[in-house]
Design brief:
Length: about 375
């Protein structure tokens, strides 16, 4: 059996956890589903296999009975700081690559504090659509928005970011097109009108988003900055048809963007084979293997891990948890990821596809080394 438990992980995509960890069962469960209908927290989350697994792991870790009430009482007794400290340290994390744009920063631990408590490094990425929204609200002149947007992306390193992130899949889809400046400007006016009518802005204006994304891609390519794309399974507002990573074809085909590493998040679930295929074809595409979210059970995680390792070069795969809200998510994802990657590599050793040394080397790449190179850590 391959033992990879001692390899410290780079969690190449995760989020901050909440400052307030004192919560009842309904609230705790609501963080363990992507569904927003309250019936899920009431009835269905306790009937999902991954949740039953998570509760058992927590009971063992907290040394309490396996029922939900005792487990939640045990974690409440520890208090948020101690909870974070214990869990992140037990997960043996080298670096957290955080998307601090969600949840709301005022409700969350800062990346710096998470790093302190977890005895690990914490670095950040810049979410492009959040920046777009801020600038569109602040400036009435489209040229000024373009200029400031380009400038912010050009100087991300100086502001402490190591990567860009796009959630365009959640808004208008991964089929990012090239629009004229006039089309984008008309779309900008619509967004401004909507913002002044509603007092807030949720940007979902396709010519505008696509146009600004291309500006970000040019800047990222010039600076060899990586960008993460949300793909596949996600919030309930996503149109999963447009979350298929094959829609990125036009962007991926642009040779002048090839110096921008593209990371397809969440194993593009359920388009796993397609995402791994893109990593096998395009030199700059990487494939993220995420072991807490999407919320899946072990058998399905084994399946996507096998697919990724079978299709893509092992140098194109990176580990993550997508942990968010609860520190258990970062911890459980690290445990789960190591165990599943280890099991699949064992299967490949048994099948005489690789030998044991190669298996260990591959685990080291996925859990640690490739992220160091891609994010220049
Ligand atoms: Zn995420």
């Amino acid at each position: 059996m391959l033992d990879i438990t001692s390899i410290p992980v780079v969690d190449n995509h995760c989020h901050p956890v909440l400052l307030n960890q004192h919560m009842d069962a309904l609230r705790f469960r609501s963080y363990c589903t992507e569904a927003t209908d309250p019936s899920f927290a009431e009835k269905h989350v306790p009937n999902t296999v991954y949740y039953l697994w998570l509760l058992r792991q927590m009971a063992t870790f907290y040394g309490c009975e396996r029922n939900e009430d005792d487990i939640l009482a045990a974690r409440s007794r520890l208090g948020a700081d101690t909870l974070l400290e214990h869990l992140l340290r037990a997960a043996n994390i080298d670096t957290l690559v955080l998307d601090p744009a969600y949840p709301l920063s005022s409700a969350c631990y800062t990346p710096e504090r998470m790093g302190q408590l977890g005895h690990c490094r914490a670095v950040k990425m810049l979410r492009l659509e959040t920046l777009m929204q801020e600038l569109i609200l602040d400036y009435s002149d489209f040229d000024e928005v373009i200029e400031r947007f380009a400038d912010r992306v050009r100087h991300v390193h100086e502001h402490g970011y190591c990567a860009l992130k796009s959630i365009v899949a959640y808004r208008t889809g991964l089929n990012i097109a090239e629009w004229s400046k006039d089309e984008a400007a008309a779309s900008f006016l619509e967004a401004r009108t909507q913002a002044s009518e509603q007092g807030q802005l949720r940007i979902a204006h396709k010519p505008l988003i696509d146009y600004l994304l291309h500006i970000a891609f040019q800047q990222a390519a010039e600076q060899q900055l990586p960008i993460q794309f949300h793909t596949g399974y996600g919030d309930s507002d996503t149109d999963m048809r447009l979350g298929n990573p094959l829609h990125l074809r036009e962007v991926l085909e642009r040779k002048d963007y090839h110096s921008m590493a593209v990371v397809l998040l969440h194993e593009s679930y359920p388009y796993c084979q397609l995402g791994a295929y893109l990593a096998a074809i395009y030199p700059h595409v990487y494939f993220d293997l995420s072991y807490t979210i999407p919320f899946l059970d072990k058998l399905e995680m084994l399946a996507f891990t096998r697919q990724a390792l079978s299709v893509a070069p092992t140098s194109k795969l990176m580990f993550s948890t997508d942990g968010i809200h609860l520190p258990e998510m970062h911890w459980a994802g690290a445990l789960r990821g190591r165990s599943i990657i280890g099991q699949v590599l064992d299967e490949m050793i048994d099948a005489d596809e690789i030998d044991e040394d190669q298996g260990y080397g591959i685990a080291q790449q996925i859990l640690h080394d490739t992220a160091y190179a891609v994010y220049k850590l």
